Amino acid sequence: MKKILLFIFILIFSIGFNQNNSAKKLSTAEVLELSKKYQKKAVFFQKIPHFNRDSSAYYYDKASKLLQTNSPIQYEQLANIYLERSNYITCNYRLTGLDSLANIGWSYLTKAAQKNENTLLEYNFLINWSSIKLELGEHKQSLALFSKALTLAEDFKSPDLQAKILMDKGVFYERYQLEEEQKLSIENLSKSLSYYQKIGEAKKPLELFSIYRSISSHYTERSSDSVYHYLHKIHSVLKYAKNPIIHAWYYAVLGRKLITSPIHGQSIITKSQYDEGKKKHYQSFTNIRKL
After folding, report:
1. Does residue 97 carry a pLDDT above 80?
2. Nearest to 141 by CA among 79, 99, 91
């Protein structure tokens, strides 16, 4: 009987302790630090081999709720979370979902700018949102967002930011599909590529993937050999780009290309090439099933 009473006492004491501990008021710095830890965990679950969309969303929600329920609300960190969550490149949600997340994030960024304007964060937000709008077919809105981003970028002088601006211009011009912009797109992408290649795939995988993808897309109706060349370049980036969406895109495009276009040095699509294309399509399907 005494043991039972002791157990109950310890249990009640431990519950009380946990409640008091959880009720402890966190400082502004502690809230920010804990939010970033949750955010880092969310990113962890966006990557192979740990990819789990639900777990990633869970930790993004925890990071956001923590900031939303503690005063003063740190709007810039909330904007950072929503920018990361709505990232067009990794595309962890449907386009309409990304657009909705970007819209929420923009409202936080607007509030953050009232106290302390972060021009680079605003630029990155506008570029990402313009890409989402473009894919949704909302060309007028996309161009407005993109133009606003370029206005902000006029004061960016560092080599890294200059390379990013060139990349963003090249990617946008290629996707906008205006014939007069295609030459300008390749010029911008080529200049940006020379910078990022010097840094290397391990440090800039997403940037190199974006550039190679845009160049291969540019050559789709122009040069089959060039498409294969840049798809080969993407393959070497995959070991550093851990998001399964990127892997699924690569295998889907390569599979379709192998099924429809002869490889360099061949005049016809051989059976072995066709079978290889089907295999790549299956790999893409396998990656999508993991999502």
Report:
1. yes
2. 99
